[in-house]
Every structure is written in structure tokens, then in C-alpha cells.
Design brief:
about 325 residues; mainly alpha; 2 domains; two-stranded antiparallel sheet; 13 helices; 2 strands; about 0% strand; globular
Length: about 325
């Protein structure tokens, strides 16, 4: 056999035998995007009616669902910080997170403050028993932040649903009646804020795809654009007004306490808060180097991926309402 390699063979031997494209073909990317969008819509078609039914039902059913969301969302958060090497105290953290909506349901803000204080003390004492003290700071801060970020913020949706009762404890019954705050008004408040933030997210997605040119927060979420955020704020505010229109037509007593001008201002603020909530969770996921907080909801990721915007927007809605009715009372 000859040791001389033919020139043609020399030329071809340097080429890879099975070259692979560096990126997926456009058709593959398009098909994948369409499939994910369809899955997302199908999940929403199941989830949205179920959530609306629970909000209208209220009571213990509503409380049970909120507790479930808190526990699942907090579990996902603790998995995030475990990716960073922290060791959360799962039992104490999840127990405290689940207790906060219950306290908000049967008690008041003072009871919540007592519970948060007790939780912090319990976490500090629990750290004293750990053998590896070098992880104490990360464990304590991560566990408690999970309670605050998911449990405490999410518990505001309990108070918001029962806002007429909360208003009576802050203002006298006569003023509550003058402000047209009727039992069940919280149904409108909760559906309104969720309508705004969900549609803000959808509006930002489609506006960003169509017009996105300038990055909103490239280090945190490279896919988000300034144009998308503006589109989301506009569409979220419009969707909130459409929610008011529907309630005024079919359940006018529930939405009578807030006029259209106020809801325009609320819609803008809540849309911005929803974007902030989304960015905060994106920051946490980027730090942990994961794409989704979970995979429970097909096409949508985990629970934390779905409640990131309401976690910020719902408390803001609650305190804006308190401020608004306080001004009206004066």
C-alpha cells in the first residue's frame, strides 16, 4: 500500500465528516415558537376560567388555592437558592409561608407582624443548632426572604379579596357605605389587577416581537425591550378598562367604587409594577442560571413564573386602594 495520500483526500480530511449548523434552521425555530405559543394558550384556556371561578367563590376554597400557590411558589424559590449553594430550612420556611395567608384570612396586619417576628426568631434559633456554621448567613437570609417574597406578598391577595371588611376596620361603616364599597367588591379588585398584569405581559410580548429595538434590561432579561414594555403598559391599562366595562354592565355594584380616571392611573402603575415583578424573578433565575423556575404549567414554566408579576402588583393595588379611599374620606 502506498503511504502517499492523494491531494483530494488531503483536502477532504480536514473537513468535519458531519458538519452541524451553529443555530437551528429558521423553519425549526418558527415551528418551535408556534408550538410553545399554542401550548401556552391551551394552558391559559384551562387556568384562567379556574382562577376566575375561585376568585368569585372566595371563602375557604379561595384560601386553600392561595396557600397551594404559596407553597408551590416557595418550593421553586428554595430550589433556586439551592442552585446557588444555600441550604434553606424547608420545613420552617414552607410552614411560615403557608401560615401567612391563613393569618391574613382570620386576623389582621398586627397578627401578620407577630407571625413574621416569630418566624425570624425561630429561624435564628434553628441556625444555632447547625453543625456547619459557614452556611448560616445564606441559609437564614434565603429562607426568610422566601417567606417574605412569596408568602407575605401573596397573602395580600387574601386581604384584597376581602377589602370591604378591611376597609370597615380602618374607616367607619358610614364612610365605607358612602364610598360604595359593598361586600364582594374585592372580586372586582382582584380580577382587575390580574387582568392588568396578565395583559401587560401579553402586550409586552407581542409588541416586543413586532417593534422591539432597544433592550430594557439586557443583563437581566435580554429578550425584553423598551418598546415591548410600553406596549405592555398600554395594553394592560386598556384591558383593565375593559374589565371595568364588563363589570359595569353585569355587576355594577362591585365596580362602582372606582371611576374610570382612577383606573387609568391604577392601570399604568400596576402594569409597571408587573414588569418590575417579572424582572425581579428574571434576575433571580439568571443568578441561578436556569430558564424557568419550574415546569408545572406547560408552556408557562413554574408557579413562580406565573405569579411573579402579581406578587408585586397585588400589594401595590391594596395600598393604592387604602390611599385612595383615605383621600376620599378626607
Amino acid at each position: 500500500m502506498s503511504d502517499v495520500t492523494p491531494p483530494a483526500a488531503e483536502a477532504t480530511s480536514e473537513e468535519p465528516l458531519h458538519p452541524q449548523p451553529a443555530t437551528p434552521l429558521p423553519e425549526d425555530a418558527t415551528n418551535k415558537g408556534m408550538s410553545e405559543t399554542l401550548t401556552r394558550f391551551l394552558t391559559a384556556a384551562v387556568l384562567v376560567p379556574a382562577v376566575l371561578w375561585v376568585i368569585v367563590q372566595g371563602g375557604l376554597v379561595y384560601l386553600a388555592v392561595v396557600i397551594t400557590f404559596v407553597v408551590l411558589g416557595q418550593r421553586e424559590f428554595y430550589h433556586l437558592i439551592e442552585e446557588k449553594g444555600a441550604r434553606p430550612l424547608w420545613g420552617l420556611g414552607l410552614g411560615a409561608g403557608a401560615a401567612l395567608p391563613v393569618v391574613a384570612y382570620v386576623g389582621n396586619e398586627y397578627n401578620v407582624t407577630l407571625l413574621m417576628t416569630a418566624v425570624l426568631l425561630a429561624l435564628m434559633v434553628a441556625q444555632l443548632r447547625k453543625r456547619n456554621i459557614t452556611e448560616s448567613l445564606a441559609s437564614l437570609s434565603g429562607t426568610f426572604f422566601g417567606v417574605v417574597y412569596v408568602g407575605w406578598l401573596m397573602s395580600h391577595i387574601i386581604v384584597l379579596r376581602r377589602f370591604d371588611s378591611a376597609a370597615v376596620t380602618r374607616f367607619d361603616a358610614a364612610h365605607v357605605s358612602d364610598m360604595l364599597l359593598v361586600p364582594g367588591a374585592g372580586i372586582f379588585f382582584v380580577i382587575y389587577v390580574l387582568t392588568v398584569v396578565v395583559n401587560c405581559d401579553a402586550g409586552a410580548y407581542f409588541a416586543g416581537r413586532a417593534y422591539g429595538r432597544h433592550k430594557l434590561a439586557p443583563r437581566i432579561s435580554p429578550g425584553k425591550s423598551v418598546e415591548g414594555a410600553i406596549g405592555g403598559i398600554i395594553w394592560g391599562t386598556i384591558a383593565g378598562l375593559l374589565c371595568k366595562l364588563v363589570f359595569d354592565q353585569f355587576w355594577p355594584t362591585l365596580s362602582a367604587s372606582l371611576d374610570w380616571t382612577v383606573l387609568v392611573a391604577f392601570g399604568v402603575v400596576l402594569s409597571i409594577m408587573g414588569i418590575v415583578g417579572d424582572l425581579v424573578e428574571s434576575l433571580l433565575k439568571r443568578d441561578a442560571a436556569i430558564k424557568d423556575a419550574g415546569s408545572l404549567l406547560p408552556g408557562m414554566g413554574g408557579i413562580l413564573d406565573r405569579i411573579d408579576a402579581p406578587l408585586i402588583a397585588v400589594p401595590v393595588m391594596h395600598y393604592m386602594l387604602l390611599g385612595y379611599f383615605y383621600v376620599r374620606m378626607g
